[in-house]
Amino acid sequence: MLCTCVGAAQASASAQVTEVMGSRAAGMGGAFVAVASDSSAGWWNPAGLALGPWFDMALSRAVVEVSPTGQSTADALAQTGGWRHHLSGFALGTPPLGVSYYRFRLTDIQRFDPTGSTPAGREDRRAGVPVRSLAANQLGVTLVQTVIPGVHAGATLKFVRGNVAARHADALALASELLDFGEGLEGDDTDGQFDLDLGVLATAGVVRFGARMRNVREPSVGLVPLERQLRVGVAVDAEAGGGVPLTIAFDADVDAYQTAAGARRVMALGAEQWWWDRRVGLRAGGRINTAGARERSATAGASVALRAGLYVEGHVVRGGSADERGWGIAARVSF
Q: Which range is least confidently modeled, 108-122, 216-230, 251-265?
């Protein structure tokens, strides 16, 4: 069920990185818990589906990576590790019901000690970096209910199945080469598990408040748990008060969760504005990891309507000290 090499797969847990999903959300830096109202609400905040359009469907593809730079590979990995997250998704939402399918692969380079008890000869270093790859499929069904006017609650029941593989790799290789190596690893599929995401969304005039808990039951793929993640957010929607179609949002993780690069607890700020009768939308944002390596990233994104209700969307991510970078594209139909 699980390919391991000297306990590599039992290293620190790697959780899903929330910000990789949804081109709109990623373009806003991940400040989306109080904004999510399209079909990606099943991932970001199930309660947001209550405020969505009559029909929204999206196909998406995204990649985000954090890897060390500016040091020799072995020394850098000993301190920071690194990871790459691929995600492909399909989501459909028509209140009060949503359906989603996501396939993700999280490949990480575990931290290691090149000066440990093993003699630090060239051959030992060449086989000294633990690399792990988690591949999983997630099928979800989202339901939403209005509790009282202006307050909505939602849940996504999901089934998760996948595999984990791990090997030791060449410590003299570049970080990108190690991640490429990890993506080629395949393990045996584990038994699937059911899990739950919960969300709540409240509106008061132009202000929206949201909270979301992912991975409530903390399922695992092999020996790798998908940690519980709690995030809160607030957004100001100027259009709801008769103003321009401009939204400004702020999100914050309540607790830190572990990745191969260390602890991650994100604060994100983003904005989205639409022009020309919602034919063009532009987004910008930024986020900072307030734990662990304290990565900083800036994001930008856009939507263009090819015709009424049919959008092509994209985003890019560029990081600071930890060199986080990524991109994504999506096609969305919304009425």
A: 108-122
φ, ψ at 127 (rounded to 5°): -125, 35
pLDDT score, position 3: 38
202 pLDDT above the threshold of 50: yes
Residue with tokens 């993506």: 183
Could you give the CA distance from residue 79 to residue 115 in angstroms, rounded to a whole number? 12
Geometric angle at alpha carbon 209, from 203 and 213, rounded to 5°? 130
CA 281 to CA 273: how far, in whole Å? 6
Whole-angstrom Cα distance, residue 280 to residue 94? 23
Cβ neighbour number for residue 171 with a 10 Å cutoff: 22
Residue 202 — left, alpha, or beta (φ > 0 → left; ψ -120 to 50 → alpha)? beta
Q: Which two tokens stand for residue 176?
A: 């990108």
SS3 assignment for 139-165? EEEEEEEEEECCEEEEEEEEEEEEEEE
The residue to which tokens 């209140």 are assigned: 95
> What's the one-letter identity of residue 160?
V
The amino acid that residue 55 corresponds to is F
Rounded distance, CA 50 to CA 29, Å? 23
Counts for the chain of helices (H) and strands (E), in that order: 5, 19
What digits encode the pLDDT tens for the residues 263-278?
889 999 999 999 999 9
CA neighbor of 191 nearest in space, from 163, 224, 153, 157: 163
Global pTM reads 0.88
CA gyration radius, the chain: 20
